[in-house]
């Protein structure tokens, strides 16, 4: 008998398996694909590898402005594809080795709960085995979803899974969905010369993000000639042998391929959840977020399958720690969902944490806002990247509730403000610390001083 049986080898599953080592627990990690899940195999890592290649291309293309003369660069898609895959394989190999080094038994197959403390595993050859465990963690992740009329064929209408492995660069793409995934693909494809149309039913990109950040991103998209169609719905496509016509309103656009990026749904079908009385809401599982325990004794859930929590790899990591801690000790190590950073890897990059101004107001807080642009920041001027901003939302006479950073390194810088939000720091407390000059982070320091009522610049 194992201490823990984990169904799913993505971020929630492999983090659970790795963390269990701290308590000397025996672990069976059941995965029908390779370990790593969507994030490592078909999501975060390969997507950011493509984005980095596009960033290098645009940096070289703009080198003359910095006094560096080069020939005109060309983007070699097959080479970038090979590099992307090399990055993925390196990380998969490293993760697999770490799991084995920590005594995790990786079992190849499809896991199904068959009763209290029992899991069946169906191998790829159809054979079935049974195992027992004191606790079960459901970490089966999520998959892309589509909308009626858009049948995914992997060629003309695709998910991000397919797009990450395109063998050649498309000339034109319609991205349906202007959330994080849609904007990241639109940004990197346009950066290397693909004609991009992006459709979003809401009236701003990345709905729910601070409007100021969305406006900055929209301006950058317009400069790169990305065609934005906001506040509109797409009609049923007309799929041909060489192209797809996407109707919207009274107009339409013809493109090589349609990339569906309208969200993700949990993968919980055919996992045997009903055998222990687990019910789902649109596929999601409800848990006690202090322990990640479901309503079924000894069954936990972490990651994208959890109802009401962000579908982010780092959230799955934190939930895995909470679940394993409870299994091992009975103590709780709940996740602070108010202090989770989110990064949009577009150009410009966007990082956010905590509540937006609108969310804080909706939650009943009386708020005040401080903002500082990058145009006066020496390092941003040196890097020729001044289109960003820092916005901090605080409770009047109270702590920092949330923040957004737009600009170079935003995904790294937001973690400074993550601590401020998580520790409920007052603006005056956070503003007392000194930022090095010249750095992009000075924009945070200046914004904190303004939030404390004593602006410098």
Molecular structure report:
- The protein is α/β, with parallel strands linked by helices.
- The protein has three domains: 2-144 and 265-335, FAD/NAD(P)-binding domain (3-Layer(bba) Sandwich); 157-262, FAD/NAD(P)-binding domain (3-Layer(bba) Sandwich), CATH 3.50.50.60; 339-451, Enolase-like, domain 1, CATH 3.30.390.30.
- Helices cover 32% and strands 24% of the residues.
- The strands form five sheets. Strands 1, 2, 3, 4, 5, 6 and 17 form a seven-stranded mixed β-sheet that branches. Strands 8-15-9-10-11 form a five-stranded parallel β-sheet. Strands 18-19-22-21-20 form a five-stranded antiparallel β-sheet, with helices on both faces.
- It is globular.
- The termini are far apart.
TL;DR?
The chain has 457 residues and is an alpha/beta fold.
The coarse overall form would be globular
* Rg, Å, rounded: 23 Å
Describe the biggest sheet?
Answer: 7 strands, mixed
Number of helices: 13
Structural key phrases:
457 residues; alpha/beta; FAD/NAD(P)-binding domain; Enolase-like, domain 1; 3 domains; seven-stranded mixed sheet; 24% strand
List the helices and strands and how they pair.
Elements: E1 2-7, H1 11-20, E2 27-31, H2 37-42, H3 44-61, H4 77-101, E3 105-108, E4 110-115, E5 118-122, E6 128-138, E7 142-144, E8 157-158, H5 160-163, E9 172-176, H6 180-191, E10 195-200, H7 211-223, E11 227-230, E12 238-239, E13 244-248, E14 251-255, E15 257-260, E16 264-266, E17 299-301, H8 313-329, E18 342-344, E19 350-354, H9 357-362, E20 367-373, H10 378-382, E21 389-395, E22 400-406, H11 410-422, H12 427-431, H13 442-451
Helix pairs in contact: 1-8, 3-4, 3-6
């Amino acid at each position: 008998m194992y201490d823990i049986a984990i169904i799913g080898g993505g971020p929630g599953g492999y983090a659970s398996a790795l963390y269990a080592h701290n308590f000397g627990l025996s672990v069976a990690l059941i995965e029908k694909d390779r370990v790593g899940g969507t994030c490592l195999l078909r999501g975060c890592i390969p997507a950011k590898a493509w984005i980095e290649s596009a960033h290098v291309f645009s940096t070289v293309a703009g080198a003359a402005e910095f006094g560096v003369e080069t020939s005109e660069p060309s983007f070699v898609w097959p080479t970038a594809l090979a590099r992307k895959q090399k990055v993925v394989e390196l990380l998969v190999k490293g993760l697999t080795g770490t799991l084995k080094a920590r005594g995790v038994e990786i079992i190849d197959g499809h896991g199904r709960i068959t009763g209290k403390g029992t899991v069946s595993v169906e191998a790829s050859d159809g054979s079935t085995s049974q195992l027992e465990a004191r606790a079960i963690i459901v970490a089966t992740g999520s998959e892309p979803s589509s909308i009626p009329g858009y049948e995914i064929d992997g060629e003309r209408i695709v998910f991000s899974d397919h797009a990450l492995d395109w063998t050649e660069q498309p000339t034109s793409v319609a991205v349906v969905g202007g959330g994080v995934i849609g904007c990241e693909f639109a940004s990197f494809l346009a950066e290397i010369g693909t004609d991009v149309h992006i459709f979003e039913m809401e009236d701003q990109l990345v709905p729910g993000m601070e409007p100021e950040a969305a406006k900055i991103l929209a301006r950058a998209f317009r400069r790169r000639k990305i065609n934005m169609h906001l506040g509109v719905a797409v009609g049923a496509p007309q799929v041909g042998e060489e192209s797809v016509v996407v109707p919207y309103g009274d107009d339409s656009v013809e493109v090589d391929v349609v990339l569906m990026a309208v969200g993700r749904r949990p993968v919980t079908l055919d996992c045997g959840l009903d055998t222990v009385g687990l019910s789902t809401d649109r596929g999601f599982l409800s848990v006690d977020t202090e322990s990640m325990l479901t309503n079924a004794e000894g069954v936990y859930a972490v990651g994208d399958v959890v109802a009401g929590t962000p579908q982010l790899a780092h959230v799955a990591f934190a939930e895995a720690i909470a679940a394993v801690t409870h299994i091992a000790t009975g103590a709780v190590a709940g996740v602070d969902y108010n202090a989770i950073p989110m990064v949009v890897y577009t150009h410009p990059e966007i990082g956010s944490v905590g509540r937006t101004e609108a969310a804080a107001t909706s939650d009943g807080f009386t708020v005040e806002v401080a903002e500082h642009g990058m145009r006066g920041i020496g390092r941003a001027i040196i890097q020729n990247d001044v289109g960003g901003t820092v916005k901090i939302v605080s409770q009047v006479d109270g702590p920092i509730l949330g923040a957004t950073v737009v600009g170079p390194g935003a995904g790294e810088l937001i973690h400074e403000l993550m601590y401020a939000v998580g520790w409920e720091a007052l603006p005056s407390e956070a503003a007392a610390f000194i930022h090095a000059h010249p750095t992009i982070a000075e924009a945070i320091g200046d914004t904190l001083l303004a939030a404390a009522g004593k602006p410098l610049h």
